[in-house]
Amino acid sequence: MEMITVTILVLAGLLIFAIAGYMWIKGQDETPSLKGEVIYQSQPQPIIINHTSTNLSLVPESAIERAKKTLHIAYGHTSHGSQITDGMTGLSQFSAAPYGSSLYSWNNGGNGGSLDLRDGAISGDLGSPDRTSWADRTRTYLNAHRDVNVVMWSWCGQVSTAKESQINTYLSLMNKLESEYPEVKFVYMTGHLDGTGVSGNLNNRNEQIRKFCRENNKILYDFADIESYDPAAHYYLDKGADDGCNYNGGLNNWAIDWQNSHREGIDWYECNSAHSEPLNANQKAYAAWWLWSRLAGWEGSDESFSSPKNPLP
What we know:
This protein is of the alpha/beta class. The chain has one domain: Rossmann fold (3-Layer(aba) Sandwich), CATH 3.40.50. The protein is built from 9 helices and 9 strands. The protein has helices at residues 2-27, 61-70, 82-91, 133-144, 164-180, 201-215, 223-226, 254-261, 278-295, and strands at 47-49, 72-76, 106-107, 115-119, 150-153, 185-189, 219-221, 246-247, 252-253. A 7-stranded parallel β-sheet has the order 1-7-6-5-2-4-3, with helices on both faces. α3 crosses α9 (278-295). The longest helix has 26 residues, at 2-27. The radius of gyration is 22 Å and the shape is globular.
């Protein structure tokens, strides 16, 4: 009888231990709140890159040259994030680019006077293989590459299913990295559109990221906002736009419509654009060079267009 009792107690203890372990592991990617956490502020004002940052002709040539000379960027992403770098590759061959296409050259290492952008230098993305290990991979990379002074990570589709606590985990991990590596600029990012519109979970979680970045002087590349507008600032999020630039339930596509009504090679350029249309990657590339220029010290332009529907300043 005593042996049975002991066995039951041991099994019960193991079960409790297993449950506690599972709950601990599950909790590692969830931070209920950032309340009480010390927020690191690396600059006096936020830097917000969105659809108002896509007029590349407003960025001075000198600002782009300075970015190429001073920035050493590590960029972690999977497929959706490649829209930025594929767009940048296409831009470097676009004959109608402001100041000439060669100005926008980039490669891993910055050879030949190009921008030093180490594409895919850190494996995975902000949600793959999980929602937290990217932070330690970032530390490992930065400790081995002390010259890197900009780190940018993108999402794939994980913001769509994220809970508020999981986005808090992302914000907390980014903030901690900023405090540990004050000489490095860390670029926050929103998740790509998924067709769920203004009231969907995706936009709610993206708004959570935006609010944190605005209120705490962070650097944000607003991936979702850029693909919510066409180049003329017509708004499509309230029409259910998705990452492929489809809207109205897939009946229309703002990028294809723009491409068909404008001149390829003059108004837009052909390039790879994972899950989307070339024009989307064009816009992402223009915004990326606006970002690099801001990080290199350019103050931005008051002439960039804005829309009353744009949620960011």
